[in-house]
Design goal:
Layout lengths: L1 H5 L1 H17 L4 H18 L5 H12 L2 H16 L3
Helix pairs in contact: 2-5, 3-5
Amino acid sequence: MSNVLNNFDSWKGFLGDRLSAAKKLGIDEQSIDKLAYEIGQFLDERIDPKNEEQRVLKELWDVGDESDRKTMAHLMVKLAEQQT
């Protein structure tokens, strides 16, 4: 996992692969967005950003309220969709 976190393009590819798998399992968009939000919370609390892109995302996450963070999570899902 650490290699995935070190490179932002690898991270986006990893998310895209997981998103494809979730859709194949029949997980709906609302559930995917909720899970993306929970993952964002986990990363914010426990993982130090490994590159500039992650640092920007963390800074935006930190200044946002819950609604902003849910929007960011949804946008990350949309970004991951482009990887599939």
